[in-house]
Design goal:
2 copies of one chain form a homodimer.
Chain A (H helix, E strand, L loop, with lengths): L16 H10 L15 E2 L6 H11 L4 E2 L2 H4 L8 H8 L3 E2 L4 E3 L4 H14 L1 E6 L18 E6 L6 E5 L4 E5 L4 H9 L3 E2 L12 H7 L6 H4 L2 H4 E8 L2 E5 L12 H5 L8 E8 L1 E2 L3 E9 L2 H13 L6 E5 L1 H6 L18 E9 L1 H17 L3 E4 L1 H9 L3 H10 L2 E11 L3 H17 L6 E9 L3 E11 L4 H18 L18 H20 L13
Helix pairs in contact in A: 2-5, 4-17, 16-17
Cofactor (chains A, B): FAD
Keywords (chains A, B): FAD, Flavoprotein, Oxidoreductase
Pfam families (chains A, B): FAD-oxidase_C, FAD_binding_4
Chain lengths: ~525, ~525
């Protein structure tokens, strides 16, 4: 990925006329705010000494320690609105003092030992797709910080097609993992929007959730065990049993730990045969309330779709599920809330699940729209972040965030968040467009995924910081979680105590103090 | 429950002639080893002072502190073979020094504060059904130990039928919980063999798994959040969201914690409407291998049974799935491995899941046996422990244990365990009957549940201690878990380091040191 946008330079494309027209309607005139060329970015000097560099080279090899601008800049920020704005605002960017890429658990362990001894903070780096400040190179109380790049953990090992398990290197990207598994006729089925770039280790460290979660579960549910390297030693968390009653589930302590306790280097995953058949059908509901009731019934009766999503009225009207056609008015499309469903498995499975889901949705007020809207969504489903790059270049405020809550609390939470955004961004002259969809469903609740479009003011970082604070206050006051699948990172860290309580935070800090006695791992993130 | 047997005196019944005949064939002549009358049991004197008792009474009320034999004896042991033998061998039994029954989180907190200050260990008590020494009143380094009885946490609160959640007191038994939920048209669907007596808090503290786990999941999957009282304060673990990426999942740290970190007082559970329809069908496979392949396919293709179980050849031939008919020869029954299936849900759901499962099983070598064997099993499914009481009275060695592993490892693990049992119990003159079934299935593996029948030697506790050691060694050497759903307790504690590694154990001890600084909670169990 390019340092200052979501994807590569090749993926970038200009705003379509329909989006331009939407933007000008909502936001009015904007002042372009392009990213600088990488050569023009001003960065902090490396704080590592020549001795430091030599010591690191002795561990991982000369080639795999770099203090070059070209390596440090792309590992300085993730892809949140804050991150992307940082490059676009004239300032000196704090970047890691070096990039270090070990290739084995022993090398990672030696690097962590070195860091603990040398007073250097360590920030792990996978695909760099964090949208919550997860890779910002915070130094904490340490004079220096290195970016620990997992890219060389790129192998697939120990494929067990009988049990449906395979061990993948933490540095493998989504596509790398799927290609390696496909050679064995297997699939993981984890497709978050970050899929093209994000890594297996990152999915585990952040409790990622993908678009097929109704069928295959969240990423944390896919993990059988993990190898984790801590400053105290190398661990395997989780064992060969599919379930155990031998105490707390150790792997749950490291899932979502965001590099605070150790570095996830290998992940043993539950995989499954590439599905034999697929089916698609879109529906429309007269309003969000009836749509939510129906997708809730689907999940509570386990009718079995692989994908089920529901957009609210504004998101449906904006045509946001198709990145190529956002803002287009489709005269033929009925008013209401768009619901997309997909089914995967054996032919018999797909047929029965599709029929059962369809019957239930139709009985609860849905009208079928056929296959087309789902296929359109499937084709463009990784495209939204690329679109955001173009909007940011144009000087538009554009960000997403997400939460989750119980079904009974969905209306209250959605209302509170929408009010918080509208109020926070409406305090100046701007008006915000707040789009929302149900992206993941559970028997007892669902996630709510918000997309915000608005006008940037003259201090866009402060503007969004203020809005984000109001949003998080609304979420915690109204029984949402501060993050359903984006993780905590830097952006949500100050709300962790409200999320898990002071004793919860204390218990996590006790684990950290044991496994990372010097506190070099990811200071200032997850456990502030 | 009576102190020295599984159930009540009323439930007890003599061995049927078919079981007597099976026993005499396998075990030969036995010497009866009846339990003593409660009045004849010799116990340790209470080590609490009058001041201690007064201080406890000031917290929970005069009525709810007892040093009476009648209260202390039934809280001294669980229901493992070791536990039941303890009463039957002439010795002084260590019993808790008092039974204390607080009624609120604040009272529990005050009791824990008092215990920490007064150097008194605390062992929580729910239904007393532990089969792994979970309630043995170990004192650790403390001069005294109290049994903290959760019986007064018996209320249902905050029922949310929209989200399918309800909060239950940790002291409610399985039937109490189902009756309370049924008033709201809801059901939990957790039916372990301990169901009649075990409690909601115990299910959570031990990661229990019930017979309907294929449909409703393990108990740990049913938990949305919990209230936990620790010596450091009162916590809620888990929040109102169905899933979260805000760090490690805090409730997973307390599920399976067996009272080592705190006392679980209330559990918010995922519940569901009482199913509208049920279907039953039994099958027989020519051998265990083909049966295992078929139940694996069912789970990996998610055809959707609520119950699926598979007995091996010996268990099938022994007719163990029907406690009334064990040992009976049924001339009409085909040879092979019995597989029981049940389906619950809406009528449409039951029909499609039954059909899909049936088609798959038949295509993989099954022959249908119709409904009858499943209905017979359902009727008698909580009866086996009562049968064991009669076998123990008759002087027969009878115990169950369980493990779990990946599908690909099932044959090797089953063989190793069977060899370990046979060898350990065959070293003297006795021969053991080793029965096994697959009781819980997952996409990547299954549990193996063993029942052992054999001849007791003259020192039955040492005899089983030796066999149990060999079994646990075989399990850990062959990639099984030391416990799939019975928990760790006293019996498995010395294998915890092998199960989760020294760093895993260290991390859990770090949590304990933070939440229970004096270490008064359940010393010598889970974290030895």
């Amino acid at each position: 990925m390019s340092f200052s946008i979501w994807g590569t330079e090749q993926e970038a494309k200009p705003l379509s006329s329909s989006i331009q027209s939407l933007v000008s309607k909502v936001v009015g005139n904007t002042t372009p705010r392009p990213a600088p060329a990488q050569a023009d970015v001003r960065i902090t000097d490396s704080q590592l000494t020549a001795d430091h560099v030599q010591e690191l080279q002795a561990i991982v090899g000369d080639k795999f320690v770099s203090c070059d601008r070209a390596h440090r800049i792309p590992r300085a920020r993730g892809k949140s609105y804050f991150d992307l704005l940082d490059w676009r605002v004239d300032q000196i960017i704090d970047v890691p003092d070096a990039v270090v890429a070990p290739a084995s658990n022993d090398e990672v362990f030696d690097v962590l030992q070195w860091a603990s001894k040398s007073n250097v903070a360590v920030v792990p780096f996978g695909g760099g797709t964090s949208v919550v400040g997860g890779i910002t190179p915070l130094r904490g109380t340490f004079p220096a910080v290195i970016s620990l790049d997992l890219t060389r953990f790129d192998a697939i090992e120990d494929v067990d097609p009988i049990s449906g398990e395979a061990t993948l290197g933490a540095g493998m990207s989504g596509p790398q993992a799927e290609i390696a598994l496909a050679k064995h006729g297997l699939q993981l089925g984890h497709f978050p929007q970050s899929f093209p770039y994000a890594t297996i280790g990152g999915f585990a460290a952040t409790r990622s959730s993908g678009q097929n979660s109704a069928g295959y579960g969240r990423f944390d549910e896919m993990v059988a065990s993990m190898e984790v390297v801590t400053p105290k030693g190398i661990m395997t968390v989780g064992n060969a049993a599919p379930a155990s009653a031998a105490g707390p589930d150790m792997k749950e302590i490291f899932l979502g730990s965001e590099g605070a306790f150790g570095i996830i280097t290998k992940v043993r995953l539950k995989v499954h045969p590439i599905p034999e058949a697929k089916a698609y059908e879109a529906f429309v509901f007269p309003d969000f309330q009836s749509g939510v009731a129906a997708v809730r019934a689907v999940e509570q009766h386990k009718t079995g779709p692989t994908v089920i999503r529901l957009s609210d009225e504004i998101e449906s009207a904006t045509n946001l599920t198709s990145t190529d056609a956002i803002g287009e008015q489709d005269a033929a499309a009925p008013h209401g809330c768009l619901c997309l469903t997909m089914y995967e498995g054996t032919r018999a499975h797909v047929t029965s699940r599709h029929e059962e889901t369809r019957d239930l949705l139709l009985s609860m007020g849905a009208t079928s729209l056929g296959e087309a809207p789902v296929r359109k969504w499937e084709k463009g489903r990784f495209g939204a972040p690329v679109l955001r790059d173009a909007l940011l270049d144009a000087g538009v405020l554009c960000e997403t965030f997400e939460t989750a809550t119980n079904w009974s609390n969905v209306p209250a939470l959605k209302k509170a968040i929408t009010a918080a955004v509208t109020q926070a961004l409406g305090e100046g002259d701007s008006v915000a467009l707040v789009l929302c969809h149900v992206s993941h469903v559970y028997a007892n609740g669902c996630s709510l995924y918000f997309t915000i479009l608005g006008a940037q003011d003259s201090t866009p970082i402060e503007q969004w910081r203020h809005a984000k604070q109001r949003i998080l206050e609304a979420i915690t006051e109204h029984n949402g979680t501060i993050t359903h699948h984006h993780a905590v990172g830097t952006d949500h860290a100050r709300f962790m105590e409200q999320e898990i309580g002071p004793l919860g935070l204390g218990a996590l800090r006790a684990i950290k103090a044991y496994l990372d006695p010097e506190g070099v791992l990811n200071p200032g993130k997850l456990l502030p």
